[in-house]
């Protein structure tokens, strides 16, 4: 009986540990728009079940998709660039809270994803975003590495910073290969990230000179200009004839 009692006690302890683990597996984020968002911590890119966070992403997508993109006589990119609803503007204002891009690719990322942000005076967790799924050859041609910030308790939105680097691991600060902020982190939903962040790029037919006006690359740490002026000019001329 004592052995059976001990077994029951162990089962109870295991249940308590499971409950604690489940509770620890959630981080609560509160943004300035009054939403309380429970985001399960999980592998980057895994979609969440429908939550308030996803609902916010759905609304962002709807705000952009409300423009007449399907009209053949309308410049869809121009319509997207002019999309300035109150909700979208309130959300865009929070992009200033995103982490700043490190001037060099953090080579220790596989072992330590924490990088000090001297602009916001805090540690930021990053994840590599250079894999085949990211299609850098299409969306950030010329970049060799990219990283994406992970959401944290300091996050004031569902957005993530996106930074890209050349073969020498230097931050690309401008041009077609530069990283641009993601309004919806892939941690929330890859589908919503595609609708909110990738579809506008497609609407602009890959014209980064227009897309980057709305989603400017981050260089808050004042890293050296990359690429140089001559290469940037070449890219601009290339975009005109794309």
Description:
By secondary structure, the protein is of the alpha+beta class. Helix content is 36%, strand content 12%. It is built from 8 helices and 6 strands; from the N terminus they run H-E-E-H-H-H-E-E-H-E-E-H-H-H. The strands form 2 sheets. It has a 4-stranded antiparallel β-sheet with strand order 3-4-5-6, with no helix packed on it. The chain has a two-stranded antiparallel ribbon with strand order 1-2. Helix 2 (52-65) packs parallel to helix 6. It is globular, with a radius of gyration of 21 Å. Mean pLDDT is 80; it is low at 1-5 and 17-50.
List the topology elements.
Layout lengths: L1 H23 L1 E5 L5 E5 L11 H14 L10 H6 L4 H7 L21 E4 L4 E7 L7 H4 L5 E5 L12 E4 L24 H14 L4 H7 L14 H12 L2
Arithmetic mean of pLDDT: 80
The strand order across the widest sheet is: 3-4-5-6
Radius of gyration: 21 Å
Tally of DSSP helical segments: 8
Low-confidence stretches: 1-5, 17-50
The proportion of strand residues reads: 5-15%
Helix content: 25-40%
User: What is the approximate shape?
Assistant: globular
- Cα-to-Cα separation, first versus last residue: 79 Å
| Secondary-structure element series | HEEHHHEEHEEHHH
Task: Give the strand tally.
Answer: 6
Q: From the helix content, strand content and strand pairing, which structural class follows?
A: alpha+beta
The main pleated sheet reads as: 4 strands, antiparallel
């Amino acid at each position: 009986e004592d052995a059976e009692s001990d077994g029951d006690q162990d089962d109870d302890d295991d249940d308590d540990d499971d409950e604690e683990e489940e509770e620890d597996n959630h981080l609560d984020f509160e943004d300035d728009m009054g939403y309380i968002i429970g985001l399960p911590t999980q592998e980057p890119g895994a979609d969440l079940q429908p939550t308030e966070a996803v609902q916010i992403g759905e609304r962002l997508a709807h705000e952009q998709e409300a423009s007449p993109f399907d009209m053949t006589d309308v410049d869809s990119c121009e319509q997207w660039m002019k999309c300035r609803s109150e909700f979208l503007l309130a959300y865009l204002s929070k992009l200033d809270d995103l982490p700043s891009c490190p001037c060099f690719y953090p080579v220790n990322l596989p072992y330590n994803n924490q990088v000090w942000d001297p602009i916001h005076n805090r540690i930021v967790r990053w994840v590599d975003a250079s894999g085949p799924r990211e299609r850098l050859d299409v969306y950030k041609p010329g970049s060799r590495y990219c990283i994406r910030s992970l959401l944290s308790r300091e996050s004031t939105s569902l957005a993530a910073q996106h930074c890209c680097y050349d073969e020498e691991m230097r931050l690309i600060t401008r041009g077609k290969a530069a990283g641009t902020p993601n309004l919806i982190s892939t941690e929330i939903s890859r589908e919503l990230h595609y609708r909110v962040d990738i579809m506008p790029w497609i609407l602009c037919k890959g014209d980064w000179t227009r897309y980057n006006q709305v989603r400017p690359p981050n260089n808050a740490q004042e890293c050296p200009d990359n690429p140089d002026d001559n290469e940037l000019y070449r890219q601009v001329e290339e975009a005109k004839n794309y």
